[in-house]
């Protein structure tokens, strides 16, 4: 006897696809074209801003140079607090790149009218609005703290998996898998939820109500960039210290 439920769902759920994407076919490899387009926009914006800020370096900074030096000092303090005063300097570029890319990506979703640009089979959005981007950033963070721990402690780095007792070996291994999952899904979920809320409010009440929500979205987007960069620096610091710690943020 065939159930009514099976008649209502003749296709497997695995074949369903949510949304449309612009794919670039390179051999057997499919790339999400819209993610690359918006990511290149963010990278270009950062490069252009850096060139403008360092075009005329003065002893007493002003304008863009002053803003850039403030951002550098902020990132340097963040890395120093999480990694340690003796070890933080080589990691400032990595932590700073993560923070600036995520920060500008998040804000581009709120400030740049991506929806007005029409593509053949998809629509543009912030790079961090795509799970592929956030997972890639999280995996880079995992590689970074593995490299940091192994380069600092050698094979002794793997002793962390049996500390403080070998009974915790499965849990310590599982922690290395949950860290990138937590980083990627937290960032993706917050950015996606913020854009969905703004889109719904603009559709329902198109005049003044969405403005406070958009302002709140800019604030939470900046906080998400700070959380991601802080956790990345904290993981690197923990790896070089040789013991684990709990995730904060």
UniProtKB/TrEMBL annotation:
PROSITE patterns to which the protein is assigned, alphabetical: ATPASE_A
One Gene Ontology cellular component annotation held by this UniProt entry: plasma membrane-derived thylakoid membrane
InterPro entries, per database record: ATP_syn_F0_a_bact/chloroplast, ATP_synth_F0_asu, ATP_synth_F0_asu_AS, F0_ATP_A_sf
Pfam family, one: ATP-synt_A
Protein's membrane topology: Multi-pass membrane protein
Keywords: ATP synthesis, CF(0), Hydrogen ion transport, Ion transport, Membrane, Thylakoid, Transmembrane, Transmembrane helix, Transport
GO molecular function: proton-transporting ATP synthase activity, rotational mechanism
Keyword Membrane: yes
Keyword tRNA-binding: no
Transmembrane segments: 31-53, 91-111, 131-150, 187-209, 215-236
Compartments it resides in: Cell membrane; Cellular thylakoid membrane; Membrane
Family: Belongs to the ATPase A chain family.
Function of the molecule: Key component of the proton channel; it plays a direct role in the translocation of protons across the membrane.
HAMAP family on file: ATP_synth_a_bact
Protein name listed in UniProt: ATP synthase subunit a
Species of origin: Halomicronema hongdechloris C2206
Name of the gene: atpB1
């Amino acid at each position: 006897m065939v159930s009514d439920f099976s008649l209502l769902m003749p296709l497997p759920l695995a074949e369903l696809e949510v949304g449309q994407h612009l794919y670039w076919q390179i051999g057997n490899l499919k790339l999400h074209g819209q993610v690359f387009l918006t990511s290149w926009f963010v990278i270009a914006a950062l490069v252009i801003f850096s060139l403008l800020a360092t075009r005329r370096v003065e002893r007493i900074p002003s304008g863009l140079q002053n803003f850039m030096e403030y951002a550098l000092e902020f990132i340097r303090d963040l890395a120093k607090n999480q990694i340690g005063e003796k070890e933080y300097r080589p990691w400032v570029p990595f932590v700073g790149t993560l923070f600036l890319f995520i920060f500008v990506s998040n804000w581009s979703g709120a400030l740049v009218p991506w929806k007005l640009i029409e593509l053949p089979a998809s629509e543009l959005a912030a790079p961090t609005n795509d799970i592929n981007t956030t997972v890639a950033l999280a995996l880079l963070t995992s590689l970074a703290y593995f490299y940091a721990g192994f380069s600092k402690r050698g094979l002794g780095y793997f002793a962390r998996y049996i500390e403080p007792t070998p009974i915790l070996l499965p849990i310590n291994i599982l922690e290395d898998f949950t860290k990138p999952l937590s980083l990627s899904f937290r960032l993706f979920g917050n950015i996606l939820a913020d854009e969905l809320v703004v889109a719904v409010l603009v559709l329902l009440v198109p005049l003044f109500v969405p403005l406070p929500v958009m302002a709140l979205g800019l604030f939470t987007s900046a906080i998400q960039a700070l959380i991601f960069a802080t956790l990345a620096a904290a993981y690197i610091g923990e790896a070089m210290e040789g013991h684990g710690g709990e995730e904060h943020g």
